[in-house]
Amino acid sequence: MTLTDRFAEALIRAHDAAKDDPSKDFPHSSYSAPQGVPTYAEALEIQTRVMAHLGSVGGFKVGPLFPGEPVIAPIPLRQVFVSGAEVPARDPLGIELEMGFELMRPPAPEMRSAPQDFFRPRIVLELVDRRLPGDGHDPLVKLADMQLNAGLVLGAALDGWDGRDFTTFDASLRCGDTQVIDGSVSVPGGSALENLRLFLDHVGDHCGGLRKGQVVITGSVSGCEWFPPGTDVVGLIEGFDPIACRITRA
Question: One GO molecular function term (predicted)?
Answer without folding.
Answer: catalytic activity
